[in-house]
## 1
Amino acid sequence: MAQNFTAEMPMSYGMYYSMPTTWNFTNGSSFAVTAFPMPGANENQIIANKLGRNGFQRIQQFRDYQPGWDFGCGQAMSEIGFIVLCQFLERLELPGGMRPSVFLTQAGHLEVAWEQTDGGKVQAEFGPKGIEFYRENTGAEGILGLTEAPRAAEILTG
């Protein structure tokens, strides 16, 4: 079964259970995949520790969303975004057991948001191309690459 694949297309969590698949890239090349790595206990533990039971359950629900979930417009959860979110949360230190809220955007990106002790709002969105962030009390906002999750955690909490 051939699938068309572009950099913009999020890979759904369900793809991890797929049978052998051929991926066709927009540049004309293709390759066959027999299995993707499944999120492990380590990633699930990070989510549970940092987002709490509700956050963990929400991500489990998001994994089941199929393309078209938002009145025909929503995309499946980006697994790349999930992995980068885990890397971010691993480094994130919030005071007093504070737990960010987690959302799935229409584009299939994972977004976390919380309010700092001074009332400032913080948001970070994790997609297949990078991390978009905003910190109200410093005015910091921007886009970081997929490998810059530790830096994003530092910017948003430092």
Note: DSSP finds three helices and eight strands in the chain.
## 2
Amino acid sequence: MKLRYPKTPWVTLAAPGAVRTLRRSSAIGAAVTTLAVVMAGLPGLAQADVPTTTTFTFSGALTGTLHMPNGPCAGSGGQFSFDGKKLKGSKAKSWTLNVNSPSSNGGSWTKFSLSSDDAPGASVVLQGKISTKDYDWITKSGRITTARNSGSLSVTLVPDHSLSGAPGVGTVHLSGSWGCTSS
């Protein structure tokens, strides 16, 4: 008798008809087990991806980290305000970061609006406030990824000349993530 699967130890002792049955039931069992693990594990995985705090890290012309507890936001991004916080490279003590994407269902974007006056699209706008004057930066390149309850980004910001405030100074590299709470 010739065995087709000599590398499988339990097959070497079984009759040819039993080998086929054993393999078929093993494959079905493995498929059922995999399906059960995937179905049970997905909700846990979705929750694990939500960061516990909102954190943005800056380098380049501005350096430092801004963080806060997660707050209300949506799958299309959010507005994050940091009052009384400083970044090295600026005298501003009030920062607003707007993350905008064209879909509330979430997604990933690498093409950005060129200015805040363009049609709605993906963008990140950073505004630093010194007294009564605003300094603005806008996305040049990078990636924004959003989901219904969280998001992340890694972008390069450049001075924005289209807003009523003054253009920011220098190029800023920004990375970070946020989680959304129920609003």
Note: Residues 9-48 form one domain.
